[in-house]
Please model this.
Amino acid sequence: MQIRFNLPPNPNPPSPLRKLAGLLVTVVVAIVALMFSAVFFAVIAVLGLIAWAYLWWKTREVRKQMRDLAEQRQSVMREQSASNDEVFEGEVIRVVDPKEVK
Model:
């Protein structure tokens, strides 16, 4: 099935002035769209920055507690390693009885 559109030829082709007006309207619409998109992305960036700053500010106490806990763990590990100075070193030589080898 095929649909055919038989449009009558345009009796009045667009004049140069009409073509210029169409081009001008197209350029203006493109510029306005670009401006709105730039403003939109700027607003999104500012809102993202505000959200990041808010979360950073609200989590400062938790981050401080985490740093203190890490320092406490490190000091405990240092104390444990300082109190346990025993080092076991050596070599092992295993003597195998020939009767045990299959």
User: Anything to note?
Assistant: Residues 17-76 form one domain. The chain has two helices and no strands. The mean pLDDT is 89.
